[in-house]
Amino acid sequence: MTAQPPGSKPRRTDVRNIAIIAHVDHGKTTLVDGLLKQGGAFHAKQQVADCVMDSNDQERERGITILAKNCAVQYGDLRINIVDTPGHADFGGEVERIMRMADGALILVDAFEGPLPQTRFVTRKAIQAGLKLVLVVNKIDKPRCEPETVVDKIFDLCVELGAEDWQLDFPVVYGSGRIGFMHQDLEAARKLLDAPAGPGRDLQPLFEVIRNEIPGPVIDPDAPLQLQCSNIDHNDFVGRMAIGRVSAGSIKAGQAVAIMKGPDAIPARGRALQLHRFSGMGREEIKEAKAGDIVVVTGLEQIHISDTICDPEKPAALPPIPIDEPTIKMTFGVSTSPLTGTEGKPLQSRELKARLEREAQRNVAMRFSDTDQPDVFEVAGRGVLHLAVLIESMRREGSELQVGPPRVIFKEAEDGSKLEPIELAVIDVPEIHASKVMALMLSRRAELVVMDVKGSFQHLEFTIPSRGLMGLRNLLLSYTQGEATLNTLFQGYGPYRGDIEKRINGAIISGNAGNVVAYGLFMLQDRGTFFTDVGEALYEGQVVGENAKDTDMIVNLTKEKKLTNVRSSGADEAIRITPPRKFSLEEALEYIRADELVEVTPKSIRLRKLYLNENDRKRLGRSA
């Protein structure tokens, strides 16, 4: 056994609590699938979908984990509670609070890509939480991968992040979560790639590492009850459900408890009606839970994330869960579009506020506040993707709303100077396109910090303002013919780096309402790129395209061809229309200017001007 966390307190031997952390798409959820299947969570003939932990529709569509989730596996007499955490920094709020439930972390790293920006982010959180680390080098079946180098890179990363000596003494396993095997010896793992499925080509070596290397939860049976709520679930039959780990003492079903929101808060009385623990992908009811158990508690409607469930005779709150502050904000408002109500349910201001309040209770990294307009709220989050997921959820609930462009949250230094969020951008690009990428990044106030060669690719690392990342991904793919990869990581606040030109081209704006006519669209095609197709409904002030020039242009796309008795050669030639450019929600948010909005409905994503009438734009634009 390797070095364990310091401390002489007795620990449980029948339970292990682990978090699985990694960069996006390094195989966390696929590995959890393998652990569940080989841990007996599903019966032999049960049909199980891939990435079974990604139960949210958006998670399956985007191919990423958004919400941290719990499951449990029984390995012999050992109960292993597993938390699958998001790998994207925009959902770091999920990672930070989930770390409190674990005693160890499996750091999953792609054998080909190696540690990437999000690997640094989640590893830093695990080290700060004092977790025992286990390195899992995944995807060794990839061509031209270099698993030998991954161990040294992770060791150097942990040293850089300030890991303790006992954390640096981490065990290593190699294998493939997709195939479903791991081994502590690299050469033996490589031989298993071509071996037939069966005993010896499974995840048992990983289970043994978890048993032997991850410490069990600390036992203090005489301590009063302390259970910190790390997650919230809801059920129509029992209401709010608190998910968390019993840190001290024990809790029984039906027990009277106290809820504390902070060390100096007044305890609120309550009763834990039912207790459940995780079993495979489901839950099972239990009568009592002890220190180290991860449980679901029902009956506490007033509970919120970070609250502590205590012994009412000896109430003592655990320290609140630290959450990194938001870096991006945008406005959410009641839809004022002329097409409001035609495709969904328009939210009124009180309904919009209630929905944001519900989200803020569960999504601890999100903040919202009132503005000087009663039907507009300012919402702040960790990134554009973080808030786009919320908007997409509201859209799928059938709601209509309008949102403003994302803006970074600035701070002020002690000397009065302006500070802005700075991110690390890591780009791998074919050498033939490297110069174009360099020029693009420098135009967005980026500074080159690392330049290296990876085979036929250039490995570039920049520090760049968060403002410079908005809309960058699509430009990067366009400049490199889709061959560049971009990964980012928030680094902190730094000096303001100057203005950045967001969008050079002006907008093409509809001057009237109606439906798009093929003739009107055909006659204007050479003026720019259009976002609408024939037959789509329009209204005055809607942004229907991008002008080839840097000024806004008002057009009439509802114009029909005049019918006359005169016919000339070639007059009735076929009308050929270029397919419209369609935006995803994130692309639309990053595209719009300060005087534009994104109208979101269950069926459509439209761009529009803040002021729909041309005269209002001229008058109010000058006054602003």
Core attributes:
alpha+beta, 4 domains, Elongation Factor Tu (Ef-tu), domain 3, Alpha-Beta Plaits, single chain, 32% strand, 16 helices, 23% helix, 36 strands, 624 residues, twelve-stranded mixed beta sheet, Rossmann fold
Structure description:
The protein is an alpha+beta fold. It has four domains: 15-213, Rossmann fold (3-Layer(aba) Sandwich), CATH 3.40.50; 226-310, Translation factors (Elongation Factor Tu (Ef-tu), domain 3), CATH 2.40.30; 411-495, 2-Layer Sandwich (Alpha-Beta Plaits), CATH 3.30.70.240; 507-562 and 573-623, OB fold (Dihydrolipoamide Acetyltransferase, E2P). 23% of the residues lie in helices and 32% in strands. The chain has 16 helices and 36 strands. Strands 18, 19, 20, 21, 22, 23, 29, 31, 33, 34, 35 and 36 form a twelve-stranded mixed β-sheet that branches. A hairpin with a 5-residue loop joins strand 20 and strand 21. Helix 10 crosses helix 15. The chain is globular.
Strand content: 25-35%
Shape label = globular
Helix content: 10-25%
Helix- and strand-based class? alpha+beta
Q: Give the count of structural domains.
A: 4
Major sheet = 12 strands, mixed
- In angstroms, what separates the terminal alpha carbons? 67 Å
Q: Total number of helical segments?
A: 16
In short:
The protein has 624 residues and is an alpha+beta fold.
Fold blueprint:
Blueprint: E1 15-22, H1 28-38, H2 57-62, E2 69-75, E3 78-84, H3 92-98, E4 104-110, H4 117-128, E5 132-138, H5 147-160, H6 165-168, E6 172-176, E7 181-183, H7 186-192, H8 204-213, E8 226-235, E9 239-248, E10 250-252, E11 255-260, E12 268-272, E13 274-279, E14 282-286, E15 288-290, E16 294-298, E17 308-310, E18 328-333, E19 345-346, H9 349-362, E20 367-370, E21 376-381, H10 384-396, E22 399-403, E23 407-408, E24 411-412, E25 418-430, H11 434-443, E26 447-454, E27 457-465, H12 466-469, H13 472-479, E28 485-495, E29 507-510, E30 514-515, H14 518-523, E31 528-530, E32 537-538, E33 542-547, E34 553-555, H15 585-591, E35 596-600, E36 605-609, H16 614-623
Parallel strand pairs: 1-3, 1-4, 4-5, 5-6, 19-22, 29-34
Antiparallel strand pairs: 2-3, 6-7, 8-9, 8-17, 9-16, 10-15, 11-12, 11-17, 13-14, 13-16, 18-21, 18-22, 18-23, 20-21, 22-35, 24-25, 25-27, 25-28, 26-27, 29-33, 30-32, 31-33, 33-36, 35-36
